[in-house]
Amino acid sequence: MAARASHGNLLRILGVAFGVAVALGNTIGAGILRSPAAIAVSVQSGQIILLLWFAGALHAALDANLFVEMGTALPKVGGPYVYARRALGDVAGLVVGWSIWCSKLAGIAAGAVSFANFFAILVPAAEPRQAGIAIAVQLVLYGANVLGLREGRALQQATSFLKAGALLLFAIVAVFAVPAQAAAVLPSPQTAITWTGIALAYQLIRGAYSGWDAPVYFLEESHAPARTLPRALFAGLLVSSALYLIVNAALLYSLGVRGVAASALPFMTVLQGAAGSFASALFAIGAMITVLSMANANIMSSPRILLALSRDRLLPQQLGFVNAGGSPQLALLMTAIGSLALAATGSFIFVFGLIGTLDTVSGVLVIIAFFALRRREPRLERPFRALGYPVLPAVALAIEIFLLVLFNAADKRGFLAVIGLSALCVPLAWIARRSRMDDPVSSETS
Q1: What are the distances in angstroms from CA 218 to CA 121, 374, 385?
Q2: Residue 314 and residue 289: Cα distance in Å, rounded?
Q3: Rg from Cα positions in the chain
Q4: Among 56, 73, 168, 414, which is most buried by a count of CB atoms within 10 Å?
Q5: Quick one: average pLDDT of 375-384?
Q6: Maximum distance among all alpha carbons in the chain?
Q7: What domains lie within the chain, and their CATH numbers?
Q8: Distance between CA atoms of 393 and 395, rounded to whole angstroms?
Q9: Around 352, how many Cα atoms within 13 Å sit in the side-chain half-sphere?
Q10: Is residue 123 pLDDT above 50, yes or no?
């Protein structure tokens, strides 16, 4: 008989293939399609651009080193929220949980709106109906996921591996089918390189890499988390990083730094040289698959954060309901309401601008939680132990703190919004604690 889920239970049916697929899906999205031009404007050197993309991969790997240890030691649904609350308490857990959930809401909305933008390229008549298309595509994705985990898994694996193959094919076309316009493979214009430009470029690259940790949100649904998480997380990060480097190198080879900077959509420019009048259609189809996969990965992971919060009585327990297909049904509904509202009103733009700060705040807290768990729970079983302890984890923490200071300097309004969100978590945590004290039986079983 097939495994079935009930209230509070999840299906253990996921393996390495899904972990890699959801990591690719959550990482590779609109960022790689839109950021190369802005990065080339900020840093007009091909060598530095590729070095920054490589630095982004190393930065993610430093954090992944810690996430694998904590994830295999605490294989629960909810990802980083679980580690922060276990080590630092309700307030830190809420800050991390809400920060990540808000980031994912913005990612879903942005993915849906981007899908509508690209669909309008394919079908010009859809131009005035983009808001409706953005809502419709979300309804389709939510509908597939509410059916169950198997349906969401199938959709994620299909779209993730398809877009990975499409990006690799694009790189091959850019190198072999399009005459190179650059004077050299990696030109070095005489334009001055500034630290401000490098910082702005890395902020975009950091955003493009966000999502590599997606497999940690599904550990309770993995049939062997201690074995699958290290393989899925590092394999997903390796494939994503390789694709980013290969695609950016191909763009620079084909167009040169100035050519990439001059085109809002350099992918389209390259395809025009190879496919002529079919370029728009090819680009639109590839871009739609890319952002669809990213939106679905966020739709799958977001409700699992709410599920974890509800189990710890930091949200209503009703959000812990899991349907027969293995989906957190009410948490999925709450996520849908938020992302649909953002996509319909366009107000998601401000939230989307906060993603870098939100992710960095949660990153700082999660790394602190890593050190706290090492100190407070030395006997906790750790199937995987972080490499280079304590030096590499300390380097990861220093990087996150530096980025937090940098983002504060660049966007004080956004930083204050995050501080306000964090402060709001204090009374919410106090209310949750009092609720558990008043109902100890329910707390023990949650």
Answers
A1: 35, 23, 20
A2: 36
A3: 22
A4: 56
A5: 96
A6: 72
A7: 16-382+389-431 (1.20.1740.10)
A8: 5
A9: 20
A10: yes
